[in-house]
Amino acid sequence: MRGFFLLPKLILIRRCICFVSLFILALLTSSCATGGFKDAAAVNLELRFYRWDSVCITKPDTRKGGFIPVLDVAEVIHEISRLKVSRDLATVVIGSCYHDWQAAEIAAEWNKRLTAQGFRRVVALRGGERAKLNGLPIIADFVFSTRDERVRIARSEAASALIP
Question: Is 0.90 topped by the overall pTM?
Fold first, then answer.
């Protein structure tokens, strides 16, 4: 009879332990997701990279007939040379379908192309389901100065191995 009264208490204790562990897990995962890019307001040029023949310029707004044109790299560079925007910060959002080492190579190539267009800082971000830049993981953050080119270390080991 004594074990009968003990069973509901054990179930209650088990449920409390499960609740507390889920709560702690939720706190840990949400604290990990708070990092990432935070300078969306300062971005002068935003590119969405899908493939080398499928790139969209999403900032400044380049819509034609209400649609964002899909361009290849040569067309993007031509369009950028015509844009009258400040050349302080450019972002390239690279799709999540690429491995870290591929994303690092893509980031390095865009850094070359965009610094040739006069941009002083190029940030490559890992794309996701969200359309907003703030909070996206940083693949690489390139800062160009007149004396030398410095690279802020990328977030992944594979990316930092490939970026000079």
Answer: no
